Amino acid sequence: MPMQDTPETDASPNALPKRTTPTWEMELLLSGATVFTMFQATQAMTAWGSELIPRLAENPRMIFSVLFTYGNGALTLLTMAFAFHLLLRAWWVALVGLESVYPGGPRFDRLRGGPIHRALMIRRWKPMPERIEGADNLATLVFVLGISLALILVPISVLVSALFLLALLAGWLMGRPESTSALFALLSVLTFLPMMAAAAIDKQRGAKLAPGSFLHRACETTLEFYSRLGMGRDSNPMVTVFQTNVGEKKGMAVVFVVMLAGMLGSTAGLALTRNQLGLGSYAAFPKPQRGMADSVDGRNYASMHEPGALPAVPFVPAPVAKGDYVALVVPYVPALHGNLFARCGGGDSPRSLDADERERRRAQLDCVAAGFTVTLDGQPAPPPQWYADPRRDLRGLLYMLPVATLAPGRHEVAVMPPEPGDEQAKDEDVTLPWVIPFWR
Questions:
Q1: Distance (Å, rounded) from C-alpha 417 to C-alpha 407?
Q2: Which residues share a beta bridge with 396?
Q3: Least CB-packed of 28, 101, 309, 440 within 10 Å?
Q4: To the nearest 10°, the Cα dihedral for 224, 226, 227, 229?
Q5: Strand 325-331 to strand 434-439: parallel, antiparallel, or no bridges (unpaired)?
Q6: How many Å apart are CA 129 and CA 116, to the nearest integer?
Q7: Cβ pair 224, 234 in contact under 8 A
């Protein structure tokens, strides 16, 4: 069966087809030079987010979580696109090399099998030039979409930041900072509603509107305003060209799936970083829980912490106590203890600690300490001190527990935290005390 004609080539039999994307060399250079850097940048940003976000109070945590998802999602999209682009370019190079070695394509007369199978192969076979062109075009599209979709997240991040700052300012002026989330949602609706209304009117009645009429001018002005903000289709020509050539529904589906993959990759990376136990099945092993009898949780001992990790649970230096005192640290976690510190009059203190300020800080410490119940072998612990560890920017309460007179053997420190707020995560029973055993 005669093969299809190949695209025009240069005089050299090893020359690339003339329909080859002219930017293939620059694509390879950019992807190859940056893909490993992108992997490292994504890992660094994920580690930074997993360290910073849990330590923020409710309002900053919400906006930083959104911005982290967008920013890390853009990095994830670029990383995935560059890696996939390199894979496709490797496939394209392999096809070009194979065509140069065997320019005639497959020898169907040497194909083993019956006549039905051979006829099916001949009917379904795509000529090598067509396969080469398809791999070339697909690699370029992946490169283009990766960059363009990552850039889409930039104006979204800027707009979300501006709306959140406005909501934060409005809540502060109203004296209701707890309403920041609701104000942010309201501002988001009010921001996007005019654009959605103008687009809907244009699509349904745009052809019937007389040029120069009020409704025509209102829709045109609204759409132009949002386009100038980077939210129009002309703001990202690469996506527009792609969608209008492959079909709007198909193009929108591809864009949605790719962006969703980037966002899910960003969220999954953060979740896996915050839970570093790894994959595996521990169904037969009892899950350690707060207050569980005859159990030891490594998080409660500083000697078992990972270097640079920020503990969120109370801890003592080691399972075996040495010396006359055991230093118990109860870390301050804004997501868990923010309400308690707010009730006790938290806030930045003046630079000069006069007598009144020292007294206020002492009263605040008494109030915060009253929110925790700390016992050593069932007996109340001495009052705490403010604690700060500059090596890892850790703050909390420090209890110096006297252990010089304790008998050899097992002893227990119990820490009952404040009552949890309504919006706190329920991933474990936060109404149980932390029980930290140690030995003398």
A1: 27
A2: 331, 387
A3: 101
A4: 130
A5: unpaired
A6: 25
A7: no
* Cα–Cα distance measured from residue 219 to residue 215, given in angstroms and rounded to the nearest whole number: 6
The residues, ordered by sequence, that sit 6+ positions from 390 with a Cβ below 8 Å of its Cβ are none
Q: For residue 404, give every residue at least 6 positions away whose Cβ sits within 8 Å of its Cβ, in sequence order, or none.
A: 324, 325
| Cα→Cα distances 265→75, 103, 259, 261, Å | 10, 42, 10, 6
The answer for residues whose C-beta is within 8 angstroms of residue 206's C-beta and 6 or more apart is 219
Do residues 427 and 362 touch, judged by C-beta distance below 8 A?
A: no
User: Which pair of structure tokens corresponds to residue 165?
Assistant: 């700052």
List Cβ neighbours of 384 (8 Å cut-off, separation of 6 or more): 330, 365, 369, 372, 374, 397, 398, 399
List average pLDDT for each run of 10 residues in the chain, which is 440 residues long: 42 61 76 80 79 72 78 83 88 88 83 83 86 88 84 80 86 82 86 88 85 87 83 74 81 81 76 56 64 81 83 91 93 83 70 72 89 92 91 89 93 86 52 88
Dist CA 91 CA 136 (whole Å)? 9
The residues near 313 (Cβ < 8 Å, ≥ 6 apart) are 297, 299, 300, 331, 434
What lies within 8 Å, CB to CB, of 163 at 6+ separation is 184, 187, 188, 191
Buried b (16+ CB within 10 A) or exposed e, 266-289: bbebbeeeeeeeeeeeeeeeeeee
Q: Extract the tokens encoding 118.
A: 């051979």
**Residue 394 burial (CB < 10 Å; 0-12/13-18/19+)?**
middle
Q: Is the dihedral of CA 117, 122, 126, 127 positive or negative?
A: positive
CB contact set of 362 (below 8 Å; sequence gap of 6+): none
d(CA 437, CA 408): 13
**Contact (Cβ atoms closer than 8 angstroms) between residue 246 and residue 258:** no
